[in-house]
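Extended Data, panel c. Modelled sequence:
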Amino acid sequence: MAKKTGSIGGSWPLFGDMCGWIFKIVARPFFTAGNVFQIHQSQAQAKFKSVQEKLARGESALIVGLGVAGHNAGVALARVSNEHGIEFLSNDEEERFTGIKHYGEFPTQGLLSLQRRLQEMGKTADDIDAWCLSWDYIAMGPNTWARWLEEFPFSWRNGLPSAMPKLPFLKIQIASTYASKQIRDLLNMQQAPTLLAMPHHENHAAFSYAVSPFAADGKDTLVLVLDGLGDEGAISVFKGNSAGLQKMYCNESFVDSLGLFYSVISSTQGGWTTLSSEGRYMGAAAWGDSERLTNRYYKLLREIFHFAPNGEIFINRQLANWQNSGEIVPYTPRLSKLIGPPISRERMWNPDAVLSVDDVEHAAITKDRVDMAAATQLVFEDALFHIIDHHVRATGIDRLVMTGGTALNCVANMRLLEHYNEAWFTRNFERNTKLQIWVPPIPGDAGVTIGAAYQFALRAGAKCGPSLEHAFYCGMPPTTEDIDAAIQSDDEIEFRDLGSIHVQEELEDIADMMAYVMSQNGVLGIFQGSAETGPRALGHRSILANPCNPLSLQIINERVKFREKVRPLAPMVTREAAEKFWDLAPGAAANNYSAYNYMVLTVPANKLGHETVPAVVHFDG
């Protein structure tokens, strides 16, 4: 255990709690007027009872999940029945309609898409049995203000909109009180719907567990939720089994957060804004020194966490300053002295500020920066292992579902598979097993809309339903007429009909043509069916290139789009080819290694992989 240095916990927690309590009393009438209710309130209980009665009669129920304010707005739909359990029907992310990443305003297009889906089913919005929100907006306000005001007066900047521009709490809470009437007016409903404020981390956990390959047999599974913050805390641990989901732990802190740590450091050291910085910084870490004994930043940065007993993690508030000033002044002078000053928001995305590895072999400052990225990744992994290690040891459970935004850290997920292998369980439990890990394609906040629907259904007593087999749930599949109209609307596009993929012979001809184009280092775009939900392109909205050419990334950048070198290309292969070129982890074998299909796990390439498909082997192998 690391020696405690610095300070942990708020300065005035009782004052913060009192302010949060007052805020809750003042705010509740506004939520009631806006038809927003927490799950323990009578209005929500009536919805649970109504669905339970429908299921008991052998009927099905339609549940909508909603992100009406805050980043990753969207609309999801699930159908629930005793016969089939919970069925995942759609997860329409508003950003796919607006073209604005992490879009955070009212999801108009997502709701109109829902209306079209309902029309195809012979239903209307008035037939929806429950409307479930992706956050407990009622709890969010008091808990947020309680944690901020526990540092008052030093935390006064957190009241400014610029403190957390991607998640403006007061604006979000106000917007949620108008959403019910907006939905009624947009969808021509007879009355404004009752909106149920579903706890955020439970939304993450409910969906991720229910669609995992572990839910089917009802055996114990750990579900770990780690993100920037929820409406109660930033770290939650659940146990899933045939009895449902039981919360084992929540840290009840927005400050002591692995997600915030990684977001702030990756943004202020990498030069990208938050929500865009994390994946890029993880990729850049491959060029840095990943040895804990030799990376000079690792020991310095590790002081930012206190590793407490029972798997608890606390931020050192003598180093971190985001609990006082958000993104405005995120470092204390001491942290700036240790790792260098933060890149200001005004300089984000500036070519002179953004971390580029193009000159890493020549510029000492670039080598310094990638070493910092590697140190950040190592410290994040230390904290992640500290949490998981305690709960695995305490329970003996050998199955883990990872969710929350940090579960997109596919490098850390791979490290878990490497560490908690058969040898570890033999040494610690004298059991011939290993930690089996699964991560959904939407562990981040794009997944809490459908997660809200799943949480409601599980609380109503529904069975989990089928395991997830793909991620193509975003938007309606385009018709041939839709595609023709889109192509013909641009005079600069030349097109010709190559045949139908529904005719076997023509499908094979098209596949042969595509393979030939790529073998000649051409670049193809593939557009088919509903889009992927989640941040990864998985074959329905993807750019394809030659994996055998080490210059494919450069070719894509020149011909199609700018893509930084720190963002690797991923292979699209059959299971047989994957086993040929990569060393698949036994701990990821659940459901035919399905987690690898969602780009949430990295995997080491073997010698043949390095030689044959270098374009899809990252700098670190």
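The two ends are 31 Å apart (CA to CA). This feature is highlighted in the accompanying rendering.
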